[in-house]
Amino acid sequence: xxxxxxxxxxxxxxxxxxxxxxxxxxxxxxxxxxxxxxxxxxxxxxxxxxxxxxxxxxxxxxxxxxxxxxxxxxxxxxxxxxxxxxxxxxxxxxxxxxxxxxxxxxxxxxxxxxxxxxxxxxxxxxxxxxxxxxxxxxxxxxxxxxxxxxxxxxxxxxxxxxxxxxxxxxxxxxxxxxxxxxxxxxxxxxxxxxxxxxxxxxxxxxxxxxxxxxxxxxxxxxxxxxxxxxxxxxxxxxxxxxxxxxxxxxxxxxxxxxxxxxxxxxxxxxxxxxxxxxxxxxxxxxxxxxxxxxxxxxxxxxxxxxxxxxxxxxxxxxxxxxxxxxxxxxxxxxxxxxxxxxxxxxxxxxxxxxxxxxxxxxxxxxxxxx
Length: 370
Ligand SMILES: [Zn+2]
Fold this sequence. Notes:
The chain is mainly alpha-helical. It is 64% helix and 4% strand. The protein has a three-stranded mixed beta sheet with strand order 1-3-2, with helices on one face. It is globular.
């Protein structure tokens, strides 16, 4: 049985080691970036330990905090070399890859301006004029701020000095084109209401965008626009998050840097029952999929997704939608300024004991009715 856990001392020294590594000269840019990502993660965990106020600290006894993170940080087995996981996987991958699309959505031939307007309609009806005006001033009044391209993944770029924003949206042939735009619109809103420009530095940085995305799906379902596709979007979001959570688990409990061949990979995948869990039965596809998710920082995504789902749940239940939207606004304006745990527990006291899989499944059965 593998042992999990960490203490403050060890976490600190691990982080220091990583920091000193960043300055070594023989790292490639990608390796340095990987390490910086890890440092961010350690920071976040440390932050929660050190800065929680007494009330929060009492509520989440050290035990429960440990149990919350035990799957993420394993120091017994941990080796700094696990940073090279991605490189190893890339290497294996380059010998194999065949890209497959797991989505099955109808081709909609949605034009760029139809997508922009559809998201605008959602924002107006679900979030109100304050949100809509920001969206409108950028994406509806001036077309130069949004670009559709199929050679790049969707992103929001904010120029630090001027705070000018540009959205690049992957030009999917299907509804994902609009849901990506809704996602980036959430980042846009957040960047406009935050007082200072900040680089992403919290595991809750995706709440702002995923909440928009969820409301977009909700809007489509209510208005009966592409109903089948909207249901699939929702299932896909939740299923892929559950899969991400599993990968996250495996990544921190298996010394993946030891993988040298596809046979090693298959042994590992079988040990963790990854084929059944992910529903991906081809090793090449599974490997590629893990690689893609590694790139997307699953740690941040899974936690943010849980909080966004909780907010969405409250939005659905509460008759006073405005109050939930205000709660969301307050929340995203505080991300990065106070410790993640403290902030997350404002949305759900449950968060302290969030069991990722259990909670995700709970939401899945709640929101996805077959
Ligand atoms: Zn995002």
